[in-house]
Amino acid sequence: MVTRLNPYLTFNGEARQAMEFYKEVFGGSLTLNSYGDFGQADAPNADKIMHGMLETTSGFTLMGADNPPGMESAPGNPFSVSLSGDDDAELRGYWEKLSENGSVSVPLEKQMWGDEFGMCTDRFGTPWMVNIGRTES
């Protein structure tokens, strides 16, 4: 197995909805395991997500979970999830879905380095950066 770097997102009770949303955006295979699935069926958080993993045909891996009881959650703290490449249509499609019902801090447009770049925060509070690289003609 190849070593991979991927974001792991923590949610405050919305992991199921968020991970299903990301599956709608990126496609792929989503596995969700609740606390109840791991022997805590009687716990108040039994239906919350202990571990979720989305693997896409594009090679993306995104993991996420609900905060365990007693741990503080602060969505959007010092991280962003970055998507970059040169497939204009694919990246614009992701941008449109991620920014819908979220907030855009940098519109997706041509930047001084020549690429198109934008920053948004999705409706779950996760910050995203999208960079569409120039293709050599």
**Largest sheet: number of strands, sense, barrel closure:** 4 strands, mixed
Number of domains: 2
Order of helices and strands: EHEEEEHEEE
Estimated share of beta-strand residues: 35-45%
User: Terminal Cα separation, in Å?
Assistant: 36 Å
Number of strands: 8
Strand order of the largest sheet: 1-4-3-2
Identify the overall geometry: elongated
Pick out the low-confidence regions.
none
Measured as a percent range, the helix fraction is: 10-25%
Number of helices: 2
Indicate the structural class: alpha/beta
Rg to the nearest angstrom?
16 Å
Q: Quick check: average pLDDT?
A: 88
Domain Glyoxalase/fosfomycin resistance/dioxygenase: 5-129
Region (Disordered): 61-81
Protein name: VOC family protein
InterPro entries: Glyas_Bleomycin-R_OHBP_Dase, Glyas_Fos-R_dOase_dom, PhnB-like
What features would you describe in this structure?
The longest helix is centred in the first third of the chain and has 12 residues, at 15-26. Helix content is 18%, strand content 35%. The termini are far apart. It has a four-stranded mixed β-sheet with strand order 1-4-3-2, with helices on one face. Strands 5-8-7-6 form a four-stranded mixed β-sheet, with helices on one face. Strand 6 (103-110) and strand 7 (116-121) form a beta hairpin. With 137 residues, the chain is of the alpha/beta class. It is built from two helices and eight strands. The relative contact order is 0.19. It has two domains: 8-66; 81-132, Signal recognition particle alu RNA binding heterodimer, srp9/1, CATH 3.30.720.110. Residues 5-129 form the Glyoxalase/fosfomycin resistance/dioxygenase domain. Residues 61-81 are annotated as: Disordered. Pfam families: Glyoxalase. It comes from Streptomyces koelreuteriae. This is VOC family protein.
